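Researcher: I'm comparing several assemblies side by side, and this is the next one on my list. It has 795 residues spread over three chains. Same procedure as the others: predict the full complex and return the structure.
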Amino acid sequence: VITFLSDYGLADGYVGVCHAVIARRCPAARIIDLTHAVPRHDVRAGALALRDALPYTPAGVHLAVVDPGVGSARRALALAAGGGDDGDDGDRTLVGPDNGLLIGAADDLGGIRAAFELTPSAEWLDPLSATFHGRDIFAPIAAAIADGVPLAQLGVPVDAALLCRLETRPPQWDGDLLTTSVLAIDSFGNVSVDAGRPDLERLGARAAVNGAAFARAATAFADGREGELLMLLDSAGRVALVINGDSAAEQLALAAGACVRLAAA
Amino acid sequence: VITFLSDYGLADGYVGVCHAVIARRCPAARIIDLTHAVPRHDVRAGALALRDALPYTPAGVHLAVVDPGVGSARRALALAAGGGDDGDDGDRTLVGPDNGLLIGAADDLGGIRAAFELTPSAEWLDPLSATFHGRDIFAPIAAAIADGVPLAQLGVPVDAALLCRLETRPPQWDGDLLTTSVLAIDSFGNVSVDAGRPDLERLGARAAVNGAAFARAATAFADGREGELLMLLDSAGRVALVINGDSAAEQLALAAGACVRLAAA
Amino acid sequence: VITFLSDYGLADGYVGVCHAVIARRCPAARIIDLTHAVPRHDVRAGALALRDALPYTPAGVHLAVVDPGVGSARRALALAAGGGDDGDDGDRTLVGPDNGLLIGAADDLGGIRAAFELTPSAEWLDPLSATFHGRDIFAPIAAAIADGVPLAQLGVPVDAALLCRLETRPPQWDGDLLTTSVLAIDSFGNVSVDAGRPDLERLGARAAVNGAAFARAATAFADGREGELLMLLDSAGRVALVINGDSAAEQLALAAGACVRLAAA
């Protein structure tokens, strides 16, 4: 199995040609498209989507490409993860650029067992474009790994401690006030914030959002009246601000990365 | 084979993670995405798309999720259909919410042979979210059925006569006038109305649409001049109002569910 | 392997039902979606996308449907190509309408070895719609070919020299001035023009675009400052006008088919 996540969108043939390259190199590989609608060049959103999805996928090769630095000196990576004693169902290899996209997901799978910088080899397509490493490097390398080629033949070992990491701003409680940030907004306008079940419990039945609107604690969309602002645990286990039948992001004027203050009320 | 239809869209990772869950539970299952562009929460449109598509699919498990009531008390269903003496090519099982989404398609496949309400089991994902039963209940159940688990192990029998059904407003002829409604509008603005070949023949060469524009009977798009309003049998065998190179829905100001009066002229 | 390219989009169930039809006729066939976002009825754009993609795909059946003439007298084709002495990896068969969509890609694969006009057979779906030959003719024929049915059983031989071809306007150099045209614009606004590596080298370090903006020669997006217009070789080996983080098409007011004059400067 090769899972595939990118910011390529489906409005061009970029995803299709990567599928074709994989099928040519490793016909037996099954490809699962996780999503290709990561906002263009938004490494943080891609990293989050990858972390959220991988626990649900079979073990295998996890190809992820959100790569604003394509063609520059940024490194290309293959990371071995999973397969530990914690009952995960097998070895997993993450393939993609060294810009923080892969590392959070690898941490969640039990940490990085080995990291390799991909180096030019006969697996890379020739000619190699400067703008589409998804097709020319990452897809064929993912296929080669799925076909059983050892990572040591595809690159050189690098120190996992020196890989690029995304900065994070951890949520903070101050009395009744939680200061946190918007992690993601989905296409329905549901706002996913950096907070979990214990935070939701501490907020109680009702919270002021940024000192303005009030959100009522709920379990499901269907608990709300039309137009009512709810806070609930979303399918990734995070606190989400949602409005049944409307866009909470629009009503609250929130974008990804924005600061959110939730005050128990 | 598992076919999959939903209103999740492709702008988020919802479809991808359902694929992943299925591949984990039943690696041998092949998934065919029928469409994920059903208008959000439009059970009627989803039911129609499912009815139109299933006669063309191989027999198997048919997963369909358009589920505005997720997290509420609405039941989750698995319906056995097909496999009768009428030459259909095998048993089919429909999986989805009890809101009318599945039942029209099941009727078209020869009727429901057995209906089961899905009940909590080890097949359901744990933890179970309140907002994403596609991932946590319907996808793994579809995979379990594809893997050979009998329906009786996944739920309890229910009376098919008591399942939710969508209300329908049947088309009516009054002399030369057919009063009917818009069933669907596709992304090109073609308007599919609740009428078939005999209705088209009875309308003759030309019909007034809602007392205003005239539509000429035709066979194919290419029969019309640029901008000409045509009425023809669409690929689902229904009367469609179309304009070559334009949106008939926009020109006629018609939306799904709208009333349409067609008068032979 | 069956690759599939169309202008159906993913906003309706058209692509899904074609997958279903193929899976029913040839369950062993693997389908690779190249793209379904060809601009509606834009045969030229579809032909280009097909040419660009096929060199990356495994050999097999290549289904392509951009078919404004569906339901008219335009012929349906299956073209045998590839499999020559030039090291291509196997026989390829292109299936689609006779409107110029397939022929450029077939030429690039070493030329047409045999051309057949598809004629009614038991492989065509019954009833046959007048508006959706993708589902009723092209998809089942592609599946039949993948299943091993010889082309001679599906149609009659036709003279390849008499197939429809798209007119092309070749690029022209006049001293330092290259007059050419826009071949395609992708969803990021990158403008692909009909010119290649030798043209880029002849233009040198900088070129005036249509006598107005200046484009700097570069290798990758990351070479440009925010907002800077670059010209580089894109992933199809063509000269592209791009702006890092912006739409070059919008800034230069260029559309597909537009004339572009590039003057070394």
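Model: For your comparison table: Residues 9 and 20 of chain B are 16 Å apart (CA to CA).
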